[in-house]
Write the structure tokens for this entry.
Amino acid sequence: MDTTKRALRISVIEGVFAQVHINLTAGMFLTSLALYIGLNDLGIGFLSAIPAFFTGFGFLAIYFVHLLKNRRILCVLASGLGRGLFLVIGLMLLVGTRVRPGLFLLIIALHNVLLNLASNAWLSWMSDLVPRDKRGRYFGGRNTILSIIGMIVSIIGGRILDMFSVAGNIARGLGLLTTSASISSTIGAGVLSTQPEPPVAGKPPRLKKMFLVPFRDNDFRSLLRFVSFWYLLAGIASPFYIVHMLKNLQMTYSQVALYSIIAGSTTILFQIIWGMAIDRWKSKPVLTINFFCAACLPLFWLFATKDFLLPIWIDAFLTGIFWTGINLSLFNIVFSLTEEKEMKESYFAVFASITGVFAFVASSAGGLIAQTLAHVQVRILGLSLVNYQLMFFFASCIRFLSVTLLLKVKEKKAYPALTALQLMGDFTIKRLILYKGLVLNTLRFNR
């Protein structure tokens, strides 16, 4: 088997085990753990800010990669240890030992330091493995498989938490899931250690060059302005969607998991669709179309109540469509900004560091705002809005404003958004007509 094909297959297998850990230690499960430990809105905001704060450690990955001349060693050690830290929390919960907020936040911080080292080296590694003209389809296909795994994990995890919650022992349920996540991540690190790696070329760039060269790229600066504005202001609401589900809408863990399943099911289909669209029309138009549509999504949360969850399910379905396109296209835009192998890590590290600063400020401020507005209730057009919903409304407004900055982002050979939208529509109609013809011909033949 070709070495590259073997490496890409191994990456999918490794991703499956990593995805189990990601699902069980993030989103609903991390929020549930934080609420059980006793974090308030300010603490939840700070918890969400931690990953952003440590994104700057991606710069260290560049030097470690060139020092070791081996991205595999760095990825395996950093990801294995970083994810394995959750075993401490899992075992403490299983034996009935109290997990103090300070220890919990320290473990989350160390986890993010190590994962940022691993992820930046992994991106460099994968950029050398995946051919440029196949990146959209490969990552779309890989993400589709991981989305399926994520849905299965969410279903099982949600059921387990509901079962232990009814039994009055939610700590044991959280401990069981967290321990299982750590075991899965250890297996994933072992699989990753078998993935072939292309040679690391060149010498590590000087710190000044590493940080300044990306800023001399006009396209990169435009992308940074857009993402930073979006993260800084719209990001204040990000930590509280799941908190709102659990505290105000009083949804069960299985219902929150169902939200992820609906979004994940849509993601499975649209990972492939958007991947093909990116390969055909480039990332910028796909990002623009999806981001404009996603700007509307927080508004659905204004109409949801504990007795009327339909807006939440609609949002879940549309989230699977639009955020899939956003994440995949944004990832590919950063990939496409430079083909200089020695500068790829710099672009990703600068991008992650700058946006991370704004995301950190947003999440921290969001926690403070949510705590300040904890007892505020506003009635608008017959709607009774609490603190989180007011933040969701603000986030939607900021997303619409962010579109003006997105329009200034450039990508080589990218189609205009309206042209791409028209071509997507034409392509879809032609396919529907073709499939209709095939179905009708099949029916006639069967008669």
Observations:
- DSSP finds 18 helices and two strands in the chain.
- The radius of gyration is 22 Å.
- Residues 3-415 form a domain with the Growth Hormone; Chain: A; fold (CATH 1.20.1250.20).
